[in-house]
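4.2 Preliminary Data

To establish feasibility before requesting continued support, the project team ran the inverse folding procedure on a target of 66 residues. The structure was first converted into the token representation described in Section 3, and no sequence information of any kind was made available to the design step. The complete token record follows.
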């Protein structure tokens, strides 16, 4: 299994986002916590993809009861 650091630039996460966009083309928010694999902390493939496609995030703290 890849480490979280390796997943920051992972096309797997981008593919998951693309799949959700294909399933539901309505406006939606991507809910994420601070996990590095979500591309939040580093300017990599995931972050660039989200910016290029104007994907809005709803950030939640890790272990949030919501």
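Position-by-position output of the design step:
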């Amino acid at each position: 299994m890849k480490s979280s650091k390796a997943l920051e630039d992972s096309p797997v996460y981008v593919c998951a986002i693309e799949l959700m966009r294909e399933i539901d083309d309505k406006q939606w928010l991507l809910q994420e916590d601070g996990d590095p694999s979500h591309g939040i902390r580093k300017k990599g493939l995931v972050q660039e993809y989200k910016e290029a496609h104007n994907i809005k995030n709803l950030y939640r703290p890790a272990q949030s009861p919501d």
